[in-house]
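Dear support,

Our group has been running a series of protein-ligand predictions, and this particular one with protoporphyrin IX containing FE is the one our PI (initials K.S.) wants archived with full inputs and outputs. We had some confusion internally about which version of the output was final, so please treat the block below as the authoritative record. The input we submitted was:
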Amino acid sequence: MTTTDHPSVGPDGVEEPSSSAFYEDDDAKVKLHFGIDPHEPWPDDVPRGQDDSRWRFQDNPKLARMAELKIAFCWILTLLAGIGFAVTYVVGGQTQAEGALLAVGFLGMGVGLILWARDLLPGTEVTASRGSHNVSDRSKREAAAEALNRTIDPIARRPFLFRLLGLVGGVFGLAALFPIASLGDRPHRSLYKTAWGPGVRVVDQDNQPLKPSDIKVNGILTVFPENGIDDAQSSTVLINLGNAPFDVRPGTQGWNIGGLVAFSKICTHAGCPVGLYNSTTHQLVCPCHQSTFDVLKGCNPVFGPASRSLPQLPLAVDTEGYLISSKGYQEPVGPGFWNRA
Amino acid sequence: MSTTEERLAAQKRLKYEKAGLDAIDDRLGSSGFLQKALDKIFPDHWSFMVGEIAMYCFVVLLITGVYLALYYVPSASDIVYHPTPGHGYMPLAGQHMSEAYKSVLDITFNVRAGLIMRQMHHWAAVVFMAAIAFHLCRIFFTGAFRRPRETNWVIGLLLLLSVMLEGFSGYSLPDDLLSGTGLRVVFSIVESIPFIGSWLAFDLWGSAYPGSALIPRLFVVHEFLFPLAILGLLTVHLMIIWRQKHTDFPGPGKTETNIRGSRLWPQYAIKSGALLMVVSGVLAALGGLFQINPIWLYGPYNPFTVSAGAQPDWYVGWLDGSVRLWPHWEFRSFGHEIANPFFPGILVPGIVFTLMFAWPQIDRWIYKDHAAHNLLDRPRDKPFRTAVGVGALAFFTDLTLASGTDILGNDLHIPFERLIEILQYGVFVAPLVAGAIAYKACQALQRTGTHPIMKPVGGVLIRTADGAYHTLGDDHGGHDGNGHANGHDGNGHAVDGHAVDGHAVDGHAVDGDGSAHNPEEDITEPAVGGAGPGDA
Ligand code: HEM
Ligand code: FES
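Confirmed final output from the archive:
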């Protein structure tokens, strides 16, 4: 706020009126409000007068009669639509008919009301003072401040009690928040763990164990740890890359079985299931925000908001020839969190 | 009242009315308030109806929502679906699903008039948000948020937030594949919050994702917490409007201290009631004739299946787009990490809403305008503010487009990678370009100086009881193009009482500098704030 008398130039290149005019005296605060002079009484809304009670077609009985008919027509439409709706319902219901009939009913009622108000009910536009509703005059303000002050003073006189109350309120309030903790389990290590582990069988959606031959070249299958189909953290994609040359990153030697590799199906961006596989480019695309993972490069993110590779699951075959994980995931699956790094 | 018969009938009615009001007044002393209320004046402008449209969508939501709540089962327990022909949706026969999902299938296929209630409910939510967004724009571009209405701006934004969350929680209740995927993303966003993320996510969901606690909790939130919050906030919103009275556009004879419009009773009340009917009618037509959220086509949720082309409701689109466009950054050090979703999912909306909450202060600071206003700005007269608003709209549009990159890419035959890159630049370029165009357009409109609707008319004279004349503002208020300058000017005259002069009484308008001039000239006057208090 400026208190100079020079008009300032606003961002629109237009001279802004200086606001100083409103800070001239101690009534400044009040004057801020529309420049109302606090010492001058302001009339409130004008009461309803003779003019107010005229309606549009008051002097034209013919037009009034016409309007009445139009309104009646609208409302009779509503009546019929209502009956139609009830009948539709009783005979078994039909969504489109119900919608159309309800619409006709409501609209008929609405349009009729609008015509009624416009043509046959009193009401010309009126202009009135806004009154001083938003601002009380000075004496009222001062009286209120004094009334408040009279009660605040005795409170302020006991600073010890006042501060103690604040302290107690704070501590007690904090204590009352503790039950929030029982809303959920503690995460503990659960974000680091899945149901995979050494020797856990790889199964399909029907909990059937799989053999390496069950998945053909360029095929992809969503798999789970045996008896762990409901474990959302564990869902995994099994991909047969065939003869396509793929990188084996350091530390992941022996995690594949020929061209067969397994990666977590949970997007490292925000956890959607990474389900769209392009078998010509060997890329997995997440449907949520289009993060794209290059399966030939250890499911490295090559496009989109994901910044981490999909974790790889070490595969092996058990004595009966079924696919197993030789150990669990070696890093947390899914999106990042504060304690992850 | 022509015939004696009619007059007698009217007298009889008056007797009953009096008796009725007496009975109430004896107990509440309410007649003073009642008369004031019936006489209350509301300015008429089509754009002032938008807030009411929002309100009436809420009414429709409450009614249809109660109906749905009677049938909905808030449970994540797994069951197998066994429809019988004609009762249920056969293609899903034998599938595992949650009880919640099944109950929504039942509402859709087995409960009579259930589907229309569901679809009206969903359409009402979508239209509700559209009306709120439009209402917010109206408030912003016309400067209706300025003193003394900053409180209602803040309450309005709290309403906006509550309605967004209410909508999102409702969208998630059916536990279908589409909404379930959205919840998965939200879990990850919560999880990404530094320090408390994983704890907060586990407290909200009750356990690791997905768990079985969320659906019943969402039900409580959607049926109780947010409706209550909205109802409470809306009540305060309306009470404040009632108290402060509605703003109005500047126009001939309108000043900061007067108000023009129709009375609450009967014009405003009946027309408003009619608007409720019209809104309900349109929502019924939409709900009956236009399919929305066909969850039976999406299928039940499970965490490892996915539907391509997943789309949230439109008002969440900008958040989804923000999550899509944010580059693949994460911060990892000292054994901790701030995961990617935090930035677009928490930080971006956090900044956006902070700026929105702070806008009345920012605006006051930009325009150095601390005065109170009842007269609105025309958007063209505040080119900078208008440019900011248009820029913000361009920003939201860009993000909303981004939430459909996969679908858009398909339709336009552009690889989605290109489209995302374009929109990433667009986040910065589009607001600047759109803002600059808006700024120039405002200036051009100002130069022509014409208002598309208003004609100049003489000022309004008020004769006080003791015979003195006051002008209530003067006629250039309509087209000097500067709402607040004009406002002070009008008051200045009225308050100081020096507007009494021969010209005014002649019916000519009184200009800011006190000379009468032909109102017709005003229409071509360049619209600069030359009539400020300094000139007066
Ligand atoms: C649930 C959502 C909302 C409802 C139902 C609602 C309802 C209304 C209604 C009925 C009015 C009076 C008519 C009108 O001016 O349109 C109004 C005025 C107003 N609303 Fe809202 N509103 C909502 C959200 C908002 C939002 C998001 C904002 C801005 C951030 C806002 C700010 C205002 C302001 C400042 C006024 C006073 C306008 C004036 O006097 O010109 N409201 N609201
Ligand atoms: S969740 Fe996969 S890209 Fe976002």
